[in-house]
Design brief:
This protein is of the alpha/beta class. The chain has helices at 8-30, 45-60, 76-88, 107-112, 125-132, 141-154, 172-181, 196-201, 250-253, 267-286; strands at residues 4-5, 35-41, 64-70, 94-97, 161-165, 185-189, 205-208, 226-229, 233-236, 242-245, 259-260. The two termini are 35 Å apart. The structure holds NADPH dihydro-nicotinamide-adenine-dinucleotide phosphate and 5,10-Methenyltetrahydrofolate. 5,10-Methenyltetrahydrofolate (GUE) is lined by residues 49-50, 53, 96-99, 121, 141-142, 170, 232, 244, 263-266, 268-269, 271-272. One of its GO terms (molecular function) is methylenetetrahydrofolate dehydrogenase (NADP+) activity.
């Protein structure tokens, strides 16, 4: 069997086009231009790539994009002051602080300072708690993207056995909550889990969000399972260059899986598209408008 490739590029482009249509409508009918502010502290080259692609795609969708680059040695107070300013700025409806933050800055304090209504990353305890309680919330973009990709294969995830490998606040935990809301049966695995290959082999849906290049192997996968690879790992090649690989050994797993996401071109594409969705939703909610169609 050779897996169907889930094309994140195409699915994300479709989602961005839907966002752009809705942005045009709220601009025309309500004079509302959704705005996203991205805060990047320090100059990690990988982060700069993501931030640039967020900026380009935000503008392409007709939204306002505000970039704030701060030096790695910025003080916590200065960063909190910027967040306070963005919280009060009526042109800003979404605030994303790129993680991880450089040493010396307390992630929790910084995240908690973001107005929950503008927390398009879904990381503030207000939104994380609401999501865990099954209430409407701004949910993290990468897990949202994982659910959309899974549904392109299965329609409904109800009753399916899912495993989420990884339990970070940004990916694993919120993904578990979204899967529960979809009525999947969820196993949560992490670095202390015992016999990960056997746990994974029971799953119809496998989500790998670990940060270990090509960790998930062919013999871990139930034949026909859907494999969603969240990992983004840059590794050296034999030719002395670098390449991106996921947390799944793609070539061998694609021989047994029913469907699989590539890296690049899978989940990463959806993350940025879902950020636009969240910004549009946040803008409509803040302006007191009905929920947008996307
Ligand atoms: N495509 C996209 O848009 C995005 C991709 N990513 C990528 O996804 C990956 C995960 O990111 P993130 O969640 O932020 O990473 P974190 O480092 O925050 O979390 C990694 C998780 O994996 C678990 N883990 C580590 N080693 C093992 C192991 N050997 N077996 C089982 N579990 C293990 C850890 O367990 P424990 O809790 O016990 O330490 C932890 O829960 C990274 O490659 C990252 O680059 C991240 C965000 C967006
Ligand atoms: N507060 C916060 N929120 C995040 O959502 C967040 C973050 N911090 N820190 C870093 C991770 C990582 N992340 C990615 C986004 C897009 C791609 C992406 O577009 N990837 C492309 C390829 C990119 C390339 O070629 O380098 C793809 O997979 O096709 C990847 C990874 C968001 N993250």
């Amino acid at each position: 069997m050779t897996a169907r490739i889930i094309d994140g590029k195409v699915i994300a482009a479709d989602l961005r086009a839907q966002v752009a249509r809705e942005v045009e409508r709220v601009k025309r009918d309500h004079g509302l231009t959704p705005g996203l502010a991205v805060v990047l502290v320090g100059n990690d080259p990988a982060s700069e790539v993501y931030v640039r692609s967020k900026h380009t795609q935000t503008q392409a969708a007709g939204m306002a994009s505000f970039e704030h680059k701060l030096p790695a040695d910025v003080s916590q107070d200065e960063l909190l002051a910027l967040i306070g300013k963005l919280n009060r700025d009526p042109a800003v409806h979404g605030i994303l602080v790129q993680l991880p933050l450089p040493k010396g800055l307390e992630t929790e304090v910084v995240i908690n300072a973001i107005d929950p209504a503008k927390d398009v990353d879904g990381l503030h305890p207000h939104n994380a708690g609401r999501l865990a309680g099954g209430q409407p919330a701004l949910a993290p973009c990468t897990p949202l993207g994982c659910i959309i990709l899974s549904k392109t294969v299965h329609g409904s995830l109800e009753g399916m056995n899912a495993i989420v490998i990884g339990r970070s606040n940004l990916v694993g935990r919120p993904l578990v909550q979204l899967l529960l809301n979809e009525n999947a049966t969820v196993t949560i695995a992490h670095s202390r889990s015992r016999d990960l290959p056997a746990l994974t082999a029971r799953a119809d849906l496998v989500y790998a969000a670990v940060g270990r290049p090509e960790m998930v192997k062919r013999d871990w996968i139930k034949p026909g399972a859907t494999v969603i690879d969240v990992g983004i790992n840059r590794i050296p090649t034999a030719e002395g260059k670098t390449k991106l690989v996921g947390d799944v050994a793609y070539a061998e797993v694609a021989e047994v899986a029913g469907a699989i996401t590539p890296v690049p071109g899978g989940v990463g594409q959806m993350t940025v598209a879902c950020l636009l969705v969240n910004t549009l939703r946040a803008a409509c909610a803040i302006a007191g408008l009905p929920k947008p169609a996307v």
